[in-house]
Design goal:
By secondary structure, the chain is mainly alpha-helical. The protein is built from nine helices and two strands, in the order H-H-H-H-E-E-H-H-H-H-H. Helix 3 runs parallel beside helix 9, helix 4 packs antiparallel against helix 7 and helix 8 packs antiparallel against helix 9. The chain starts with a helix and ends with a helix.
Length: 179
């Protein structure tokens, strides 16, 4: 087996990140992807009788609960001795808050559409549809960016984007099947 295939990622040579890659890595996190999936799922399973304001409230509360649980889990997991250094509970909590931001950021745009529907600035059904659609589009963009980060050519980026967007479409299909 060649050395490059058997070496662990930590043993691989460091590659200098571009400014774009550093920005992407600070914004596009597993928490943002997870938050997009969670917020889309919460919106998708809303009762047909719920108006957009009700869906908005349930989504906000759900995202705060998931965020708090993630902050707590991250703080507990990182408190104590890590890589030869002691991390106090305050530092571990701050790290958890910073690390978990993507869970909240992910729901901003879908929630904005729900508020537009709740206030009558947009038809409620259209606002609900766009709140679901934006999650699918965001997942597609994140897939494109992940493949772009690897240096893939545009056809692979497109397939990566479509593949991740399909996950969002699966959530919408579940909504249709469940209701």
């Amino acid at each position: 087996m060649s050395e490059s295939l058997s070496a662990s990622p930590a043993d691989q040579p460091m590659v200098q990140s571009s400014r774009w890659q550093r920005i992407r890595h600070s914004l596009v996190t597993p928490e943002l992807i997870y938050g997009t999936i969670i917020s889309s799922a919460v919106i998708a399973v809303a009762d047909d009788d719920d108006d957009d304001f009700d869906v908005f409230v349930v989504t906000v509360v759900s995202m705060i609960v998931f965020w708090a649980a993630h902050v707590f889990a991250t703080a507990v997991a990182n408190h104590g001795l890590r890589n030869g250094k002691i991390m106090g509970i305050g530092q571990a909590f701050r790290y958890g808050v910073h690390h978990s931001q993507g869970l909240l950021y992910a729901s901003i745009v879908p929630l904005a559409f729900l508020i537009l529907g709740a206030t009558g600035l947009l038809d409620e059904d259209a606002a609900y549809f766009f709140a679901l659609l934006v999650g699918t589009v965001l997942l597609g963009v994140l897939g494109w960016l992940a493949f772009a980060d690897r240096g893939s050519r545009w056809p692979a980026r497109l397939l990566g984007g479509i593949g991740t967007a399909l996950f969002g479409l699966v959530i919408i299909v579940f909504k249709t099947v469940l209701h």
